[in-house]
């Protein structure tokens, strides 16, 4: 604000006061441009529209519904992925079971010394 004119500083201060909720009196200002700018800002602040309770309730309901739909969709995707890898092909489960049984059988035979070196 160092290089600003006095009028500009006064206008900015009044705008800040208006936005903060304070009331200003444009008629007390000396400059006509400041008066018209202050009156315009005052009108803008007065025109600030707050949504009614019905709108807020509908918006909240819509957002909650969207969140719920997103959660349901994510749950369905997770369920599909889990189902795909657990129940898709019984032949893979059978192959894995046979591989595990073969590994256990080799471990048991190795422990009994069936695969000895022949010394």
Task: List descriptors.
mainly alpha, 119 residues, single chain, 4 helices
SSE topology:
Elements: H1 6-19, H2 32-47, H3 53-87, H4 90-112
Q: How is this structure best described in words?
A:
The mean pLDDT is 78. It contains 4 helices and no strands. With 119 residues, the protein is mainly α. It is rod-shaped, with a radius of gyration of 39 Å. The protein has 2 domains: 7-47, no CATH class; 63-112. Helix 1 (6-19) packs parallel to helix 2 (32-47).
Q: Count the DSSP helices.
A: 4
Q: Could you report the average pLDDT, rounded to the nearest whole number? A: 78
Proportion of helical residues: over 70%
The tally of strands reads 0
Shape label:
rod-shaped
Low-confidence stretches: none
**How far apart are the first and last residues' alpha carbons, in Å?**
98 Å
Give a quick account of the main beta sheet: strands, pairing sense, barrel closure.
none
What structural category arises from helix and sheet content?
mainly alpha
Order of helices and strands: HHHH
Overall tally of structural domains: 2
Radius of gyration from the alpha-carbon trace, in angstroms:
39 Å
Q: What fraction of residues sit in β-strands?
A: under 5%
């Amino acid at each position: 604000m160092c290089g600003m004119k006095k009028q500009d500083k006064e206008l900015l201060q009044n705008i800040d006061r208006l936005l903060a909720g304070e009331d200003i009196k444009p008629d007390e200002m000396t400059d006509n441009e400041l008066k018209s700018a202050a009156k315009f800002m005052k009108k803008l602040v007065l025109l600030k529209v707050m949504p009614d309770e019905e709108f807020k309730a509908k918006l909240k309901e819509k957002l909650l519904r969207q969140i719920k739909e997103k959660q349901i969709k994510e749950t369905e995707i997770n369920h599909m992925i889990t189902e795909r890898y657990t129940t898709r092909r019984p032949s893979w489960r059978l192959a894995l079971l046979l591989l595990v049984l073969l590994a256990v059988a080799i471990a048991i035979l190795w422990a009994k010394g069936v695969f000895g070196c022949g010394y």
